[in-house]
Amino acid sequence: MKIAVYPGTFDPVTYGHIHIAERACQLYDKVIIALAGENYKNDLFTMEERMIMLKESVKHLENVEVESFVGLTADYAAIKGAKALIRGLRAVSDFEYEMQMAAMNRYLNENLETVFLMAEGKYSFLSSSNIKQVALIGGSVHGLVPPIVEEYLKKKYQELNYK
Ligand code: COA
After folding, report:
1. How far apart are CA 60 and CA 44, in angstroms?
2. In whole angstroms, what separates CA 61 from the centre of its chain?
3. pLDDT at position 91, please?
4. What is the pTM of this model?
5. Among 128, 129, 133, 153, residue to substitute to test ligand 1 (most atoms within 8 Å of Cβ)
6. Is the pLDDT assigned to residue 121 strictly greater than 60?
7. Which end of the chain is flanked by fewer CB atoms within 10 Å, N or C?
8. Is residue 100 within 6 Å of ligand 1 at its C-beta?
9. Which of the residues 30, 128, 132, 156 is marked catalytic?
10. Is 41 a catalytic residue?
11. Using CA atoms, how far apart are residues 113 and 16, in angstroms rounded to an integer?
């Protein structure tokens, strides 16, 4: 069975991520979307919230599992028997960071290949940060994130505004 891990922080998941996951599903028997637990970024959503949004957003994909992990992605992939790490590339600006990460992961686990999928043009400008910023200022993110993410963003910013 060919297994791939698609890791990320998914704070929150967008249609850009989902499109990459859908395409990875065509290439591998099983794709594990791995929510990174230790994150050095300033997360808006808790792990639990990100997990709920992710699971709901990929429930149409039969060969996808969603899990969280802590520690090194390279170790997690080895435990799961995955030979491939999936990463999406949106623009040239992603390349340097991704190249370093792929090289480090290969150093840590020589059986692991990073497989890059080019983001679809219509999603190539998306990031979780720009989604959060637009939602925070009251703009529409409709069509860029699944309905559950729209709902969670709305709820989160309402809570924060009332504090
Ligand atoms: N569509 C939309 N957005 C995309 C995207 C796509 N196809 N591809 C990337 N992005 C965005 C993400 O939304 C995110 O945006 P943000 O910075 O505004 O939050 C950004 O690009 C990168 O995020 P992501 O793909 O989630 O990666 P990450 O950099 O947040 O996560 C890990 C990287 C978790 C995979 C990495 O840090 C890791 O492996 N950590 C575990 C510890 C470890 O092994 N460290 C050594 C690694 S060398």
Report:
1. 26
2. 15
3. 87
4. 0.94
5. 128
6. yes
7. C
8. no
9. 128
10. yes
11. 22
Question: Of all atoms in ligand 1, which is nearest to the CA of residue 14?
Answer: 2
Tell me, what amino acid is at 149?
V
C-beta contacts of 56-60 below 8 A and 24+ residues apart: 56/146, 56/148, 57/13, 57/18, 57/146, 57/148, 57/149, 58/18, 58/21, 58/33
Mean pLDDT for the stretch of residues 101-127: 96
Helices (H), the chain: 15-27, 47-57, 73-80, 92-108, 128-136, 147-162
Ordered by start, the domain boundaries in the chain are 3-125
Active site residue 90: yes
* Tokens (6 digits) for 54: 């992710």
Measured from the CB, is residue 126 less than 6 Å from ligand 1?
A: yes
Catalytic hit among 41, 60, 122, 155: 41
128 noted as active-site residue:
yes
- CATH superfamily of the 3-125 domain: HUPs (3.40.50.620)
